[in-house]
Amino acid sequence: MSYELFVEVTRNGTVESRHFGAAVVCDFKGDVVDRWGDIESLIFPRSALKPLLAIHLVESGASDRYALNNAELSLACSSHQGEQMHQNLVASWLNRLGLTEEHLACGAVLPEHTESAHQLLAAGQAGCRLHHNCSGKHTGFLTTALYLELPLDNYHQLEHPLQQLSLDILSDLADIDLEQYPMGVDGCGLPAPTMPLIQLARATARFANPVDLSDDRAQAIYRLHEAITNEPLYIAGHGTMVSELNEVTRGSVLAKTGAEGILTAALPERGLGIALKISDGSARARSVALLAILDYLGALSDEEKNKLQAHISPTIENSRGLVVGEIRPAASWLPGLDRERVL
Amino acid sequence: MSYELFVEVTRNGTVESRHFGAAVVCDFKGDVVDRWGDIESLIFPRSALKPLLAIHLVESGASDRYALNNAELSLACSSHQGEQMHQNLVASWLNRLGLTEEHLACGAVLPEHTESAHQLLAAGQAGCRLHHNCSGKHTGFLTTALYLELPLDNYHQLEHPLQQLSLDILSDLADIDLEQYPMGVDGCGLPAPTMPLIQLARATARFANPVDLSDDRAQAIYRLHEAITNEPLYIAGHGTMVSELNEVTRGSVLAKTGAEGILTAALPERGLGIALKISDGSARARSVALLAILDYLGALSDEEKNKLQAHISPTIENSRGLVVGEIRPAASWLPGLDRERVL
Q1: Interface test with A, best of B11, B137, B158 (most A CBs within 10 A)
Q2: Were both Cys, which of A26, A83, A330, B257 would link to A201 (CB 3.0–4.6 Å)?
């Protein structure tokens, strides 16, 4: 297990904190294009698996049967912020299935979107399961369970046929048998598999270009590309790096976060998959690291970088509204990076 | 700059995230007792300086003039959570000075204490300066400024005589000239000095046993020990490691957090100072690391460790209330640690 210095947090130009990580870029054949740190280290991909877990929803025919639209399919792949638009869509989707919030296995929480959480509290309301960042994924599972006439109870447990089917698909994409690796429980109650970081990049590259997978699986993945590209705000939310990157690149980079410092990106046109882990689990460092890698790969145009500047090197403001520092790729990392722009 | 692996975050027994850090234990003569990582690395001590910044409040005579009690002096050293008790005491103290919240230079924020923040929002209120974790420190500065008849405007700026006096005292304790080191701006608007980590430990050790400082300075420090020991809830708040550690050890360990992964502890009876920095700035790792060092030093009794168990290796619950992991000292760190208890 070894990491490289990826991201520095500065205060008035002096480095205050440092984030270390490992990352790997793979092509859809599984070959490593670039690597930093120990890419064999075991990681929990967490929510970075969501787009891969949504494949079955389409491939099974459930999505067609219930006429899921782009927004719903994007939401099935999402870690959404719990904005009103996300809450509403989960609620209406559940309603169309004849189900309610009570069927969701995830716990009741406040929205991650601060303004939405504050509005709820000011209105005298509390958190609920719809607000959970995983509620779209759970609604996707319920949709498939209904269609396949599987039990709706305990659909989140490892023993449930739906989770076994999901593990099979993940194992296919990652090209390993996930049952042979340690398994945890995720924040929303679903199984949380582990895999070497390199396998997450390989799975992401196959999601980017599924040409070597079965036809049905490949078609399901293309349908998800279309959904996410057309409804980027449903995969995360307003102001997030993931939604803005997807939107700005018009689907040429499909990024997905996972808890504890995980971030993946699928580049369909180039058939590449990127997976990175910030060792300490930091959310603030992973976006900066991914955008630096994308820039290093030449995957972002100047115009795209201009639009994404707030995520490329975010500024830090203090309580008085003064800019007191920034978060940036470490100077020692990625030689050849266009530092004049990034730093 | 080098760090050691201090803390692991696990999920179902498998390590998910890792926090690296540097730490040093010094005696009040300045000699190093124990060390991990690069202890010469430059750090921003941030709020770990607050007890040292409160020395002037007592030493100048301002504290006596305004009859500050233990709770107020503890609050002057605090990063409080903005609970009702903290808000009330800042407000009444300012009122006694003939001042208002408007005199505080820190920005308006919601309390860090989640329940207090939610109560405020539910009551239709917003954040204010009283809630800022630094409002006690700022009220302390205003008290000294009033007593010394210094301008109340811009008391937070580096050029103000109060900040220059504070830097002199910090330089005396840290045994370096802080004006020679980079300076940033803190979250609350005050100057944020830098120093090598070892100097923060030395300053903390001199705060633990000030016998080599001037009599007036030493007496002021003993007064602060008394205040913090008698009012531990005013230096942080309910449920915090800092308040509980101070309370459980009855003042034999006086800990203080700083933003971006900083934590110090003064051990008055042993004349020791500990300073640690988690490289990534994590708050969750610093408490676990400090308690591991204290255990390693034999500074905690079995009874004290029992009472502090929730901070020694905190469990992680998911949204369904299930324990899914824990935060613990890394297995490779601190050989000889009583792991059966800690792990």
Answers
A1: B11
A2: A26
